[in-house]
Amino acid sequence: MAIAMFALTSLVLVQSFAVNLINISQMDMDIRSILRTIESNGGVLPNSYIEQNTNFFNPFGEMHLYIETPYSTRYFVVELKDNLVTKISTEHIAAVDNTKALEYAHAVYKENKPGFGVIDVYRYYYTTDGNKSMIIFLDLQHDLARCLALAFISMFVSLITISVLAILVYWLSKKAMRPVADSIEKQKQFITDASHELKTPLTIIAANAEVLEMCEGENEWTTSIKNQTTRLSHLVKNLVELSKLNEMQDEKSRSNFNISSAFLDTASNFETNAAVLNKNFSYSATDDIFYYGNEAEIRQLVTILCDNAIKYTDECGYIKLNLYKSGKNIIIESYNTCEYVDPNSVSRLFDRFYRADSSRARDTKTGGYGIGLSIAQAIVHRHKGKIKVFTSGTTGITFKITL
User: Domain 251-402's class?
Assistant: First the structure.
């Protein structure tokens, strides 16, 4: 709705501005035409009738005089020769006498810039021919009043139009988005309901496997059953958690905490796991950086980054996590070496269940579900942050989070 209203408001304002600009340009063109006509007729606007231009395809052409123009035009003329005033004509204007006309003429003459100009509420045309000069002043008060009236009316109409459009866009957008909102709510409800429905059979299957082991002894089949039920239980839990993360943030769960300490404490839990798997794991953080957010979710975010890096780093590979401050932002970076990742597909790593290559297929080696980075992205978005991924294709992959 905001994007639509911004576009419509911009369009209406541009239209209003264009109308006023064209009106001012046309008015100035007409005034210049009248001034030239007065100058070419020796300082007098002729009474001759010239038919008005009615060409529909050229509405912005030069103005044509008609029989009432001399009576509706207010102007005065000052002529000079050898720097001396030779004639002052003020019979076509009531607001200016000879003294005032002379003051205006001296002010224009001092600048010594022939051509068109503006002084006070008068548009003037200053021409020279040898030692003779003529300055024609045209009263703009009526034209300025018309321009201001048009500007006021156009802005008033624009505000009314924008208000009506806002109401229509709000009403129509709610109507158009209702099916989408309903679909999202049904999806969330489905995930919640499905998780509850799956918990019972998973618990029963796990219990039956335990009973079989007690009666028949442990074997590869019961072990496989137990492993898969455990995986399914974790997957259901993650799906429910992701669904909750996509809902509105609860401000009550936020506080100002030491994110440096939380980062180091969480990352330290993965040192042993990395060492067992023969992977080089290092991490660092700038001391005493405080952040206002949900500490539990930030810890979960770091956990996902560490777990993801350890799972997909090749043997004897390197993993490095850093937390530091850049200006007003807090940066969390996670780098790890890995097998080739197509740079064109890295943006899809945040899609649910997506695997970039065969090494990320669901198997017992990694134990992943392809949903961890989706949860990480949801956490970052809840904290109004950004998460980006970079890869050179062959050397490694970097996740950069800006909070």
Answer: alpha beta
Distance of CA 360 to the CA centre of its chain: 35
pLDDT in tens, 236-263: 776 766 666 655 555 557 889 999 999 9
Helix (H) or strand (E) holding 303: helix 295-312
Predicted TM-score of the model (pTM): 0.50
Q: How remote is the C-alpha of 283 from its chain's centroid?
A: 35
Task: Report the alpha-carbon distance of residue 126 to residue 39 in Å, rounded.
Answer: 9
- Domain 2-52+59-139 belongs in CATH node 2.40.160: no
Residue 93 has pLDDT above 70, yes or no: yes
Q: Where are the domains of the chain?
A: 2-52+59-139, 148-245, 251-402
Strand pairing partners for 128?
133
CATH architecture under which domain 148-245 falls = Orthogonal Bundle (1.10)
| Domain 2-52+59-139 matches domain 148-245 at the CATH topology level | no
Q: How crowded is residue 250: how many other Cβ atoms within 10 Å of its Cβ? A: 10
Instruction: Pick left, alpha or beta for residue 392 (phi over 0 → left; psi -120 to 50 → alpha; otherwise beta).
Output: alpha
- Dmax (CA) for the chain in angstroms is 129
Instruction: Give the number of C-alpha atoms closer than 13 A to the C-alpha of residue 274, restricted to the C-beta side.
Output: 24
Alpha-carbon dihedral angle through residues 155, 161, 166, 172, given to the nearest 10 degrees: -160
Q: Is 247 helix (H, G, I), strand (E, B) or coil?
A: coil
The number of angstroms, rounded, from the C-alpha of 18 to the middle of its chain's C-alpha atoms is 24
β-strands 280-285, 318-326 pairing: parallel
Q: What is the pLDDT of residues 174-189, one digit of tens each?
A: 888 888 878 877 776 7
- 11-53 residue pLDDT tens: 999 999 999 999 898 888 889 988 998 998 888 888 765 554 5
**Rounded to an integer, what distance in angstroms lies between the CA atom of residue 187 and that of residue 201?**
22
